[in-house]
# Entry
Amino acid sequence: MKQLKRASTSGIATAVLGFLIVITPIILPVCEGLLELASGKQVPMRCHWTARAEMLLGVLIFIIGLMITFLKNPQERRRLHHLVAMLGAATILTPIFIIPTCMNPDMACNLATKPALIILGGVVLLVGMAGSRTPSMPSSESTE
Amino acid sequence: MKEINLLTLALQNLRRKPYRTIVIGLCVAVATGSLFAATIVLRGVQHSLTVGRARLGADLVIVPDGYETLAQEAFITGQPSTFYMSDVAEKKISTLSGVNQTSPQVFVETLSNASCCIGEFFLVGFDPETDFTISPWLTTHLDGKALGPFDIIVGDRILLREGETVIFYGTDFSVVGVLEKTGMGIDRTIYVPMEGLRSMIANSETLAEQTLEISPNDLSSIMVSVKPDAEILDVAELIEANLDGVNVFTATQLNQAVGNQLQGVLGITFGVTASLWLMSLFTIGLVFSLIVNERQRELGILRAMGAKRKVIFQLVMGEAGLLTGLGGLSGLVAAGVLLTGFSRLIQLRLRIPYLLPNVFEIMGISLLLLLLALFTGALASLHPALSSSKMEPYAAIRKGE
# Structure
């Protein structure tokens, strides 16, 4: 029962972190300017896509957090925690390598959005790793 | 069976009430973390000013009257500022007693769509013949190679590296060096030899989108080094007395300008942190008094089983120490992560120079604050620990029933 309680706490924490990742680009917006291509067409800066990708990751983390909260099977929870850890790592890697933010370190995306997302991603990674190490309960208890 | 000792017993007691443990731990973490952040920012500013002042090299900076605040801001934050005065001022200053050397500088602001960088950057024209700001760096970093008129030196925060070329106002420049980080405006400054800068200004009419209206006799600032036997303030007064329309500021005044900017923010931060410490002290004291009252029966049984007064005292003190120690450590880690992540944002918002102090200094500050957190726990739980250790076993068990 105690382990179930612990797992649900980490589920709630995961969902809250997922929600925070979703709202980070809203509270701490990325660069708003547009880039003009040689063709004359105006396109958003690449940090715009970083923010979109991070919001999607946040939604996934939020949903998995809710699933962890309400799932009763500890094995399933552990598997989902593995997934949470991977999504946390993806949250960290996205603004650094996958869809890097703008080059200028003084731009809005690098000043606030990127560090906030990396920190949140780090916490998600830690929660996922801690949750995936929670020992599974004996089968008699897990069926209760 | 696991051996029970004071540490395991204290840990079990803390785990038994997770909510209470987390809340008290958070109190200590917030207090320790804020104090750590404020101290590191303060030391970072001092470190940056020391490094920046050494790079600036000048004892006095002369700018047109009315522009001293803008000039100081340009030196501290690299915020581009353009103002001009006649070069006659330099000739007059170089003849005054106490003046060792003078070197002129011309400030130009880049256009916001310059090909290297988004945002306005600060171009500073300097005379390699007389300069003592950048030239000492050139002799050690360019292996004695002469600087061409279109060779530029850039600050650490400019997105250009050695060997790259860049166009300013239609003129091509090549980067021959990148200055070390100072945390000051120098990091966002591009140093251009005066000959190249004057050529860029002259050609801007035909090559650039915007013409630069700067006369060949215009200067923005004059850097002055004072003779070793002369008093800096006396020379400053002499310059102001002999020249109209100029303002002189010293390197110390730059520090004062930063101090004024920081005073308000750091004052509030230290005030809030001090209140948090007091609050934590009272909360821990109160909670541990309640804990001791609540656990009289348990402590009485421990005494009846042979535990000495000292053991009970150590148990209560140990719990408080563990709680404040872990809380303090979490606060330090959290503040360290936030400070590292958002240091540039803090620097830009507060408009202060900032350069992270060295690792040993950071470790020393962390250790001191951790000790302070442990001391707070010890002080707050001293009375409950003493009163619980003085309880008679029988009376404690009866009272606790």
Remarks:
- Chain A is about 75% helix and 5% strand.
- Residues 138-144 of chain A have pLDDT under 50 and may be disordered.
